Amino acid sequence: MFKAKKEKLRNAIEFTRIYKSYADINLREAACLDYQLKNILVPMDRYDLLAGRYEHDYVGFSSQCGGIYTYYFNEFDFRTALNECWNDLSEEEKNELTNLQEYWEFENTARKADNRIIQKYGYLPPKSYHGPGFFNADWRVAGTNLNMERLINLGLDGMDELIDHYASVNGASTFYEALKSWIGSLRTACERYRQQVSRCAEQLKNGEKETPYKNTKALEGLLEDFAEEPDTAAKAYLAAGGRTPDLTSYDRLAEALENIQHHAPRSFFEGVQLMWIYSVSCDLMNYGRMDDYLGPLYCHDIENGIITEEEGIGILLGLYKHFKEINKIHDCRIIVGGVGRRHPKEADRLAIALMETSRRFRETVPQLTLRYDRDIAPEVYRKALEVNAEGTTFPIIYSDVTNVPAVKELYGVSEEEAEQYLPFGCGEYNMEGLSIGTPNSGTNLLKALEMTLHGGRDFCNNVPCGKNVGSLSDFDTFDKLYDAWKMEMADAIDLMADYMQINYDVAGEEAPYLHQSLLLSDCIEKGKACFDGGVRYLNASSEIFGLISTADSFMALKKLVYDEKKYSLSKIVEALDHNFEGYEQIRKDCLAAPKYGNDQPDADEMAHRVFRTIGEMTIAAGKKTRLHSYNIVSVNNSMSAEWGYFCSASPDGRKKGDAMSNGNGPSVGADKSGVTALLNSMSGFDNTLHVGVINNVRFTRELFESSMDKVAMLLRVFYENGGVETNLCVIGKHDLEEAMIHPENYQNLMVRIGGFSARFVTLNPTVQREIINRTTYGSC
Fold it and tell me: Residue 432 and residue 629: Cα distance in Å, rounded?
């Protein structure tokens, strides 16, 4: 069900009036959020076990959803609704909405950030990659993992008391006042849902038919009509064994919603409900170490007979249903396992339950992620492999053996802090409750090489858009060519770092981000909002694409042009410009050049060199800003295929428009020496130069099922010898090929793209072909 467009338009009028009423940014955000929360939270549907569903308006506040950046204006939807509803509006409403449109066109925070960049640089970097150039950048505050354990342990009253304590130490302020207002708004949200649930329970007791969804604004609509077909999320929930709530369910939920308005959760169910109502109220899209902050409640309830393990999974399925409704496939991370947990024994027990829930749910969300360490419980590690073996693509597995020391050195933090690193989104890192680390830009390394070879011209799009760093005749040594490629990227990398700083500056000037500041160290302690010096570590990252395609291209050029002198550089570029048509032998030689992923020292070292170069350039650019740290991430959100579409043929033998390499994985189909060789290549990067990489590995189901112990040992060796992580995909190439031909027979076929999972049949054919052409391993 959706809110009426007219209702959203009227909400925009009132939201704007409130926004204009406050000069103080703390009180303004508190008032806007209080109004917004009363309008975006919509009634439960008849399959909900937990309260908390939202639908954003055309104007509002958000860090990540519903407009993406701080105070947003969804202009397209607003204009559409205004045109459709025009004849049903009063003259006063028409005037107000017309003025409102003009106001928010310039007042929305993204527009203010645009103006800041234009004033400084004279132009805006591209915000998407569908045209000329090799980089993009956008405005957002994404991926933060908050200190949920503090919320669960203290409850809302305890958070109030914590604020009062530090206000007495630091002095009263509108920031502290606004934080308490935000907590009050959460209480109101819980109470409104409690009232709805109580009415639903009364209806069931009296044998009444449920009332269809009506008025979202006052949460007066009750359950949707039972005759209505379940939506996609509800179907997944029911297929996984989820049950439609009954009277007992509603009584339990009403009691939970009443208790968590003030007290810390007394049960696992109440803990899940508090975590969810907080998250959905502020668009939180990553949920941290859930096994640790909810594990004690889960084990307490199991051990005291309050719930069975099956009932615990039922609660988690109810949570997963909400995840699927939002369906943020590039985020929605739940982390389990790893060092630094406060309750490892209890956490392991919940981790197994979460993995079992993912096995049953079989959806693209949540992105369940396991942190591996040398002391991992055997049953936890085994469960992770068994669930992956069924083709779920989860859990993703990260190595604490590799990542904790690397994060400690890279960020310059204590080991205790480094132990709180968490992957979020497509695989970027931040530290739970300690840092912000938004990834807001992307760099196409292969496109930068294309421009280097064409005098700063994007040859594929036939436009000049970079620097002319020299003609082909100037590159008479390989090092000169390589240095020219670095020069091509240098200014843009500096700009993207500054862009990230401005992103945070403007966000902080506009709003305290109360939902983040409440649960990030050291905002309450300092009495400062997260972007006003409150958060302990203000980090950022930039995504890189085409890493290995670029390295393999350099390898081919070095071998064929500079070492063997078989071809001139101009002859190779001529072949590229003709997409190798009429130059088949040159392409054959390019393809035959050493390739990363085969444990070949020269090819692997070239990949490590390219990685080291872009990593060091990004770190150096960050040092010119006020960021604590600015680093690369080599992840993928399908852009290796989509950005490859805009790249000309490349010296690695890839043809125009074909997919580039994915994350730190090999060029498509180039790994021909077995999975051990592939993992050896993947484990050789300097892990103190990045804050997230992804490694896709695909096995046949037959191998995984028949040789589980061998696979487990192979991966252990990788995780304990420099391997960062693995995205395991257990599926045969034949099934993928058949799914392209007969998609109707493969609706539930899941694949791992890189930084997210998807149903194969829903993907762009370019992305499908890239996945099919990846190597599938049938032996260790």
Answer: 16
